[in-house]
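Is this the right way to post structure tokens for a design question? Let me know if I should format differently. Anyway, here goes:
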């Protein structure tokens, strides 16, 4: 399953809730060239790598998808752990951006693609400003990107509105059991 949505919609929060309440679900850990935010742990939240290491992973075909996000940092999903989790029959969740979701759709069209949407644009802005981890310039870049990402919601198999983290998490996990729900939630 691929979970994507605009910046600050709560993808990481929902993924953390899945990790805490559904240990049966395997969560992919992305590689990134951005620096860690306060409290993030290498190998748990992301694999923090430099540009040279990221380029090596790409060149060797070790990334299922990769993208430059918000015109700055590079992100990618290591292929090996995903393939291993699927081979073990574990429900697998990739929390990635829109560009990455499009690449995974090309590589693994059998995956279920879920778009996490905010309750409203104002709430998305509030969440981005409220987390206080970006400069004003970075927030503006992320909000411009978010408008484009929101317009892509129809590319996904299912849309979940993240108006309550526990509810959104349960909807997401239930899709791993019944992957043929109504399109909109």
């Amino acid at each position: 399953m691929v979970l994507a949505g605009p910046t600050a919609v709560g993808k990481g929060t929902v993924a953390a809730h899945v990790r805490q309440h559904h240990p049966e679900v395997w969560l992919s850990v992305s590689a990134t060239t951005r620096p860690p935010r306060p409290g993030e742990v290498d190998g748990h939240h992301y694999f923090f790598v430099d540009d040279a290491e990221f380029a090596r992973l790409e060149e060797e075909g070790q990334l299922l998808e990769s993208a430059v996000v918000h015109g700055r940092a590079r992100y990618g999903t290591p292929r090996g752990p995903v393939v291993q989790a699927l081979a073990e029959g574990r429900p697998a969740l990739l929390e990635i951006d829109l560009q990455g979701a499009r690449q995974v759709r090309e590589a693994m069209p059998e995956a279920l693609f879920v778009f996490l949407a905010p309750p409203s644009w104002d709430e998305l802005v509030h969440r981005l400003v409220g987390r206080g981890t970006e400069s004003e310039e970075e927030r503006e870049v992320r909000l411009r990107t978010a408008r484009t990402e929101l317009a892509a919601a129809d590319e996904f198999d299912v849309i979940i509105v993240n108006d309550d983290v526990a509810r959104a998490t349960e909807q997401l996990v239930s899709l791993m059991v019944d992957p043929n729900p109504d399109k909109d939630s």
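Format looks fine. Someone answered above. Worth noting: Strands lie at 2-4, 26-27, 30-32, 46-48, 63-69, 73-78, 92-95, 113-117, 158-161. The chain has one domain: 2-177.
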